[in-house]
Amino acid sequence: EPEVTQTPSHQVTQMGQEVILRCVPISNHLYFYWYRQILGQKVEFLVSFYNNEISEKSEIFDDQFSVERPDGSNFTLKIRSTKLEDSAMYFCASSERLAGSSGANVLTFGAGSRLTVL
Amino acid sequence: AQSVTQPDIHITVSEGASLELRCNYSYGATPYLFWYVQSPGQGLQLLLKYFSGDTLVQGIKGFEAEFKRSQSSFNLRKPSVHWSDAAEYFCARGDAGNMLTFGGGTRLMVKP
User: Fold this and answer.
1) pLDDT per residue rounded down to tens, chain B (112 residues)
2) Measured between CB atoms, does A106 come within 8 Å of chain B?
3) Which residue in chain A has the smallest CA separation from B38?
């Protein structure tokens, strides 16, 4: 069964450092997402991406965050200068399509990248 | 803002017993509703979804959920729980866009 893969599974970094989290979405999917879950809190939407541009983003996704699809297979989340409160599990997801009249998108999630900021 | 509430943070059931996990969503246009399961070290796996039509939906691993508009609920059920069902379960809603709103999750523990 096709799956979304994420690397690294766990990253520890110092406050102020840049971090890049990587994701390989399912090959025929066109829509890509990042979500995060701070320990003990809800899974929260960060950003969605389609056709090489951001289609939607949440308030959390401020200027220190960026996303990129540098080649035909990878989808990355960059945090430019990490803060303590960025410590969380970051989930990448992909879907074939967006919500439309025939139903909502069905997302396939990766296993997550746990980021710990010291 | 749309919201999803899972009232039970932890639930413990005996193996073989029935299970019901509660999910309530805030009022809005007919939502698209999902249940995901997360086992330790795994991603969020889709169990089932409701878009429209029959309000009782069947999913993988023997799970089902019933959409009740009058109660704004989408509870997940399983008639007989297996030890391998121990995991965290998330209810989520999607609206006319590509963002999912998740509930806080319910951690299920299964006693032998």
Assistant:
1) 678 999 999 999 999 999 999 999 986 777 789 999 998 877 889 999 998 888 999 999 999 999 999 999 999 999 999 999 999 999 999 876 667 899 999 999 999 9
2) yes
3) A111
Alpha-carbon dihedral B69, B73, B76, B78, rounded to 10 degrees: -70
Provide the Cα torsion A81, A3, A104, A113; round to 10°: -20
Number of domain units in chain B: 1
Does A25 lie at the interface with B, CB-CB under 8 angstroms? no
The tokens for B28 are 């809005």
User: What are the structural domains of chain A?
Assistant: 5-96+108-117 (2.60.40.10)
Residue of A39, A50, A90, A107 to mutate, testing the B interface (most B Cβ within 10 Å of its Cβ): A107
Measure the CA angle with vertex A115, ends A114 and A118; round to 5°.
140
CB-based contact, A81 to chain B, within 8 Å: no
**A45/B101 touch (CB, cutoff 8 Å), yes or no:** yes
Running DSSP on this structure, what letter comes out for residue B96?
A: S
Considering only CB atoms, A56 lies closest to which of B52, B98, B102, namely B98
Residues A63 and A47: their CA atoms lie apart, in Å, by: 12
Which of A18, A12, A21, A15 has the alpha carbon at shortest distance from A84? Answer: A15
